[in-house]
Amino acid sequence: MSNFYEERATMIAAGDLQEFVPFGRDHCKHHPNALNLQLRQLQPASELWSSDGAAGLVGSLQEVTIHEKQKESWQLRKGVSEIGEEVDYDEELYVAGNMVIWSKGSKSQALAVYKAFTVDSPVQQALWCDFIISQDKSEKDYSGDKVEKCICILQSSCINMHSIEGKDYIASLPFQVANVWPTKYGLLFERSSSSHEVPPGPPREPLPTMFSMLHPLDEITPLVCKSGSLFGSSRVQYVVDHAMKIVFLNTDPSVVMTYDTVQGLHSVWALRRVKTEEENVVLKFSEQGGTPQNVATSSSLTAHLRSLSRGDSPVASPFQNYSSIHSQSRSASSPSLHSRSPSISNMAALSRAHSPALGVHSFSGVQRFNLSSHNQSPKRHSISHSPSSNSNGSFLAPETEPIVPELCMDHLWTETITNTREKNSQASKVFITSDLCGQKFLCFLVESQLQLRCVKFQESNDKTQLIFGSVTNIQAKDAAPVEKIDTMLVLEGSGNLVLYTGVVRVGKVFIPGLLAPSLTMSNTMPRPSTPLDSVSTPNPLSKLLGSLDEAVLLSPVPELRDSSKLHDSLYNEDCTFQQLGTYIHSIRDPVHNRVTLELSNGSMVRITIPEIATSELVQTCLQAIKFILPKEVAVQMLVKWYSVHSAPGGPSYHSEWNLFVTCLMNMMGYNTDRLAWTRNFDFEGSLSPVIAPKKARPSETGSDDDWEYLLNSDYHQNVESHLLNRSLCLSPLEVSQMKDEDLSQNLSLDSSTLLFTHIPAIFFVLHLIYEELKLNTLMGEGIRSLVELLVQLARDLKLEAYVDHYYRDYPALVRTTGQVCTIDQGQTGFMHHPSFFTSEPPSIYQWVSSCLKGEGMPPYPYLPVICERSRLVVLSIALYILGDESSVSDESSQYLSRISIAPQKSQAEQEENRFSFRHSTSVSSLAERLVVWMTNVGFALRDLETLPFGIALPIRDAIYHCREQPASDWPEAVCLLIGRQDLSKQACEGNLPKGKSSVTQVLSSDVPSGTETEEEDDGMNDMNQEVMSLIWSEDLRVQDVRRLLQSAHPVRVNVVQYPELSDHEFIEEKENRLLQLCQRTMALPVGRGMFTLFSYHPVPTEPLPIPKLNLTGRAPPRNTTVDLNSGNIDVPPNMTSWASFHNGVAAGLKIAPASQIDSAWIVYNKPKHAELANEYAGFLMALGLNGHLTKLATLNIHDYLTKGHEMTSIGLLLGVSAAKLGTMDMSITRLLSIHIPALLPPTSTELDVPHNVQVAAVVGIGLVYQGTAHRHTAEVLLAEIGRPPGPEMEYCTDRESYSLAAGLALGMVCLGHGSNLIGMSDLNVPEQLYQYMVGGHRRFQAGMHREKHKSPSYQIKEGDTINVDVTCPGATLALAMIYLKTNNRSIADWLRAPDTMYLLDFVKPEFLLLRTLARCLILWDDILPNSKWVDSNVPQIIRENSISLSEIELPCSEDLNLETLSQAHVYIIAGACLSLGFRFAGSENLSAFNCLHKFAKDFMTYLSAPNASVTGPYNLETCLSVVLLSLAMVMAGSGNLKVLQLCRFLHMKTGGEMNYGFHLAHHMALGLLFLGGGRYSLSTSNSSIAALLCALYPHFPAHSTDNRYHLQALRHLYVLAAEPRLLVPVDVDTNTPCYALLEVTYKGTQWYEQTKEELMAPTLLPELHLLKQIKVKGPRYWELLIDLSKGTQHLKSILSKDGVLYVKLRAGQLSYKEDPMGWQSLLAQTVANRNSEARAFKKQEILDLFSSVLYECVTQETPEMLPAYIAMDQAVRRLGRREMSETSELWQIKLVLEFFSSRSHQERLQNHPKRGLFMNSEFFPVVKCTIDNTLDQWLQAGGDGCVQAYLNGQPCEESQLSMLACFLVYHSVPAPRHLPSIGLEGSTSFAELLFTFKQLKVPVRALLRLAPLLLGNPQPMLM
């Protein structure tokens, strides 16, 4: 073999040569490294270069000494993009000194620094490693695990790991590490053996030398090896042999190569996870005596590791005596580790699981190995049981726990021992390479012997192990794999670079610009006679290589003969080379097909090895031929082709195909120089030696052949026909015709060539490729090239059927006659006809056509991987047309026959299994099945567009059916294929982590810069203006709300100075007025928080801007400032503390729950000034409400609470509880209990907890235990409602708010549980609450904390009755919440308002409001939205005697207290209204709105009525506020104008009874109305109602510091009831919000049937549990259905991501914004001006046709069919002009017509009469008719003779050939060879013909045209 190659030594030209300098080196110079900086300070610049330390970094390269040179190292790998797929650029990891620089390439630049790391001590090694993050250690789960990509930096004492996500880990190393290797599972360490480690005596076991670490947070564990010994069973043990060194480690396949320094042998091991039985073997003490060696392994090892890790020097003696270890471990073990779990692997999993949050990244090694030694572990075996332990009992510490190994090495192969083996033959370089046919080799370079040893290996059939084969030695100085093209580069001893594939030599590599050693070494070298073609080297390179003599460079002439002897002899070439200067010294850093050459002068160049083929066509053909040939033949063929293709000065892209044909035919035995059509190929490069083995050197004289060549060239023909030629009357030269004739006689094939026997197989696969290419419209040129080759082969193989087939496809290219090469009859026997070869040519068009007609077809042959399109088309037709669902799900389909040579199985099988049909998506029809299957196979729109239109039609039809009503849960790819980008974008957004969705970036921030400064601080700039302007497009209500809610600008203080007022009094009056206005300003932030709810994503690097609360005023006309701090009037102390708390909450609530926030940012916001502490307290509460407070570290929570700042504690406790709503979280419970004396044990120290903090903590308990009905909590809270005041003035102030909080908390704990409170019947909860509500004797409760209350209070005399004024509100609301929505009549009757005057006097009117509310909430289903129902709550006595407030006269009556009656009346009505608000919260129910609005108006009029004083203005204001809040609840988020007007009116009222509390209520109503800027609404779930009861408690504070009845902080709990319900349609093409029509279907309920409602989105949806489905309605947008009966999760996730619903405009429609009435759509326009200005065109008919086609495409919604229409039209016209050179378009038209007449299509039409691709098109009949006419005219005009000739197998005239082909194709005329078989001679009548032709499946219309010819009747029958 080698001689053959030596004799035609070929050259391979390498691509571009570039100087190579590691990128990191340059970056290091400029990197602000500590070292550089110190040096610069210490020394003057001139000395910088010579200083030793910086030389490697800063010194110029010339002065780098050899010693310095070793300090830098680098490695390159193929780039990996962020997503994880491989990309075509390099990544470099450069190490120098203490620095590691990681640089990456990209499309735009070669390399750029990605990350740079500087560590404390010199870096020993840096590498990439992927760690697996998984809890499960088993092997089978490996594939699905998450991978953490890291970079590992090894220093002498520790290893740093930095993951791409930004996590850092440090692991300290318990021993000196010699080497680190990245594996498939994690890191592998080799321990460096210290020189003085004594070989252990008999009792001692050596320590392992290899360790693994599977994750930065795991233990370092020893490696186990399992070596199959020759004499029997394999033995499992730790790797302890110091002689074993790892030389190579590969991840896939996962193998390790080691070198035994003692024996001098290399071995290969498989690396895998350890199995449990092996763990046990290693950990157990060996009980079969005799080998005491590994008795103490585990324990001594563990002890040693742990002692080392405590900081003893690793070099010290490995063993210490027992006591020191023991004592140390005891002293060093920290108490926190005492609760360790028994097994280490658990610990590892544990530490991994918690790592990111608790900052365990830099878990130090000391702590890791230092495990507690005080608990027994089940895995430990006590020593006394072990028979052979006596010898070292003294040493073993019984506490040490074994470290469980995790990885195991299995022995696979060891090289054979040879006698002449040298000791230091360790491999210096190892790599895995595969040859061109996919056979793998493990190659290792033994430099001492200049040998590259290659071991062939392959996977076993069951894929479980690797089988190694024989070793081949190649002489080499260095080598490197070129993975892109499956070859390797070998640097021979002589200095030549040679390319090998596997062990087959391909050829030398010629590097333009580098001299070839073989030329320079032979002194007798003659000077080459040809001038240098193109030796232009780039400038810097020529400097680099020194000046080279022209002669030294290699000329394009193939290598000279006399140098070939060099291959055999190995010179000691150093001497020869030293004089010459540069030669290649070594090869390094192979990536893809690039490799770096180190030259002898120290510089490096990077070269590219050319690819196997650049044109797609050649690649495909090579692949197919490789697939079909035996491996050895395939390799030889590819090697030949490669050396031809890559010869110096090789072909350009254009002529690659010609080169391929020539090369292939030569290998088949053709003489291409004698074949007419290959002779004319024009090559730009020289022909390579393979084709013309002995090409004579051109003689000086030239020869006749040259002229001959010129005359035959295309160039000559072009010149001949040139005008100039004619004008000069040059007579055309006669090309000697004789040549051709003599050519045709003696062309025969040489049967000795490589591929001769395989010609039929190759021909067949090339034919299949030809059919495959017909399915890609972009490959037209390739097909034409291929057809010429196929025709030649088909003729020579005498395959008439194939020639006929090609003729019908390409009549213009395929002449019926042509040059034939004879194949000797004797030789044909040697040809191997494969089993899959068929005499009938497989035709994909024919196959599809038969399916459409419903005829049976044999399976279609296909080549796996290569003919994927054919496979796809066949299966999709089978599925969609034949309706066979199993076709795509079965592995082996009956529609395809796979082609394979018998032995080659594996690859094909793998391919087949790729596409299993995943049933996860819901599929209802064949169309859907097809579309889903196609996307699973990876078929996309791009591919659909390149399919010919006839083939694509069935697929397009399926897509059309799917597009109308797709399922909302289809994956993204399916939606893209069916052209619903709206859905695919939705699916893709759905997979993104919850963060900013694309619409939040559509925020318009186009505030003009002038106003920026003032607007900056009102806290409402981050609202999504664009969406709000769509929701409220008619007016500027949003600006109005902003104006009403801003608290950052001074207010106007408008006071008129009367003449009698002195200036001083006037100032006082202004300040008093300002004080009144400030009551309003301070109440604004709560409302502002509602308005801006969740509207902002903070920047993690900036603190949250909190707008300031401005309490100054400006007085007109001079705009003088009015300030409260001037001291003229008394201002209450601490007036602003709660206001600023609310301001902080409002700012914090802007943060959306989806924002990325961490603990550090929360702490970073902490203000510097003490006066801002209240705002920060509010900010903390807000973070709890939006769920971010869970990220705050426990440590920080503790810090805040110990400060003792009351507000901070309140905010924090409420925030944390809200964040942990209903979780019963223990840590939070502990936190809250400290603040509630009742939850502490009776003996505990009394903590002085401020009252408001206690209130907050009690509500917090309610939130954490919400809905859990936790018994103990309920019991305590029940008692706390009636907590009596204590003796020492404790619990005496603000008792009401505490009692209320306990009631609310109790209600939350038992929320909605009603009578089924499991296990609480003995507590009598409802009875106890009833008593608290109506009063009575206090029951003494036996409780643990009752001792404190034995002595009564000295301040408050309550006696032993319950103080109802304190306990009633809490108890009432607790009852309401416990029995919420239970419709429990008996409890509800307790809450009825009293109906006698006597009883009315006993109840505070205010409490009647609460009772009415509670009663209605219990009887939830009875609430009706009308005023009649509201009035029905008022007892009869009040109704009959109530006064209408407008009357002037008061009726006087003795026994009736009118004041009581009227107050009771208004409060009861307010209570009923409030319950109406709860019942219809967020529903925008119209009747509820009307009813409440009427009552609000009524209360407004009562307030101004003359006798309002009877009821009391305060009471009326309260009721009005309550009704207004109810109104806002019903209309939450809707921004209703009428409610806004009410709020605005009340905003302006600032005098009289209006206090802080009423302003608070009014602005809360305003906030609710615009909740979250219209994106949020309220929910009516139980937990929402509980939260709203806390927030809207109908007793409002009298002034800003008033917390007596209700803690103000609770007002913010409304957040827990808010839910996002705004659906914003976003146009997927423009990415902007738009209007769309929705149809919402409600489920039926007891009040109404199932109903539909149309809404114009963006709109707030009703609550999701009420809905059945939501649909985006046409006609403008594509329909889209979200079905909620399957579950609301999908819609919820859409709503939580800003409610973005992508919609897509249909063709020809405008959006509602541009065209509100729909009068401007394309359809409307086309109808109007159909034929107005088109008259100017000459080609009127074409224009008409196109306008009608366009109109049809748009109306039918199938714009994608436009190209098909146009193509059909063009084809018909071309046929009419008789210019059809190829018939593929005719085939397509035929397929289209067949599709529409196919049975499956007809059935679909019956099912959906209105839908389909071309419903009412007149286009097809016209097309059909035109084609028929054209062909019939041709028949009459003499075509019939042609057809006759064809059928009789005679040649016919050339001009008619293309029309004949069209006729044959269109009418499916059978080939002449079929006709004789059915015996036509006897046929006399048409009927007989019909009968005989039935078998051939010829359509009747074709027969009608053929009959005259066949029956010998010249008259055609059909005219």
Number of helices: 71
Write down the oligomeric state.
single chain
As residue ranges, the low-confidence spans are 1-8, 37-70, 137-142, 285-299, 306-399, 517-580, 683-701, 729-745, 902-922, 992-1015, 1342-1346, 1727-1738, ...
Helix content: 25-40%
The structural class is alpha+beta
Largest sheet: 6 strands, mixed
Strand order of the largest sheet: 16-15-20-19-18-17
Number-wise, the strands total 46
* Coarse morphology: globular
> Compute the gyration radius: what is it?
46 Å
Proportion of beta-strand residues: 5-15%
Rounded to the nearest angstrom, the distance between the terminal CA atoms is 71 Å
Report on the structure:
The chain has 71 helices and 46 strands. By secondary structure, it is α+β, with helices and mostly antiparallel strands. The strands form 12 sheets. A 6-stranded mixed beta sheet has the order 16-15-20-19-18-17, with helices on one face. The N terminus and C terminus are likely disordered.
Give the arrangement of secondary structure elements.
Elements: H1 2-7, E1 11-13, E2 18-19, H2 23-30, H3 34-42, H4 45-48, H5 66-69, E3 72-80, E4 86-96, E5 99-104, E6 112-118, E7 125-133, E8 146-154, E9 158-163, E10 168-172, E11 177-182, E12 187-191, E13 210-213, E14 221-222, E15 224-227, E16 235-238, E17 244-250, E18 255-260, E19 265-273, H6 276-283, H7 297-309, H8 322-332, H9 344-358, H10 365-369, E20 407-414, E21 429-434, E22 440-446, E23 451-459, E24 466-475, E25 478-482, E26 487-491, E27 497-501, E28 504-510, H11 517-521, H12 539-544, H13 574-580, E29 584-591, E30 594-599, E31 604-608, H14 616-628, H15 631-645, H16 656-668, H17 676-679, H18 704-712, H19 714-720, H20 723-727, H21 738-745, H22 759-774, H23 780-796, H24 800-809, H25 825-828, H26 844-853, E32 860-862, H27 868-880, H28 886-889, E33 896-898, H29 906-914, H30 926-936, H31 941-946, H32 949-964, H33 972-977, H34 981-991, H35 1009-1015, H36 1025-1031, H37 1037-1045, E34 1051-1052, H38 1063-1091, E35 1113-1115, E36 1120-1122, H39 1137-1149, H40 1159-1164, H41 1173-1185, H42 1194-1202, H43 1206-1219, H44 1226-1233, ...
Parallel strand pairs: 1-28, 15-20, 32-33, 34-35, 39-46
Antiparallel strand pairs: 2-31, 3-4, 4-5, 5-6, 7-8, 8-9, 9-10, 11-12, 12-13, 13-14, 15-16, 17-18, 18-19, 19-20, 21-22, 22-23, 23-24, 25-26, 26-27, 27-28, 29-30, 30-31, 35-36, 37-38, 39-40, 39-43, 41-42, 41-44, 44-45
Helix pairs in contact: 14-15, 14-22, 15-16, 22-23, 23-24, 26-27, 26-66, 27-30, 27-32, 30-32, 32-66, 38-39, 38-60, 39-41, 41-43, 43-45, 44-45, 45-47, 46-47, 47-49, 48-49, 49-52, 52-55, 55-58, 56-58, 58-60, 59-60, 65-66, 65-68, 68-69, 70-71
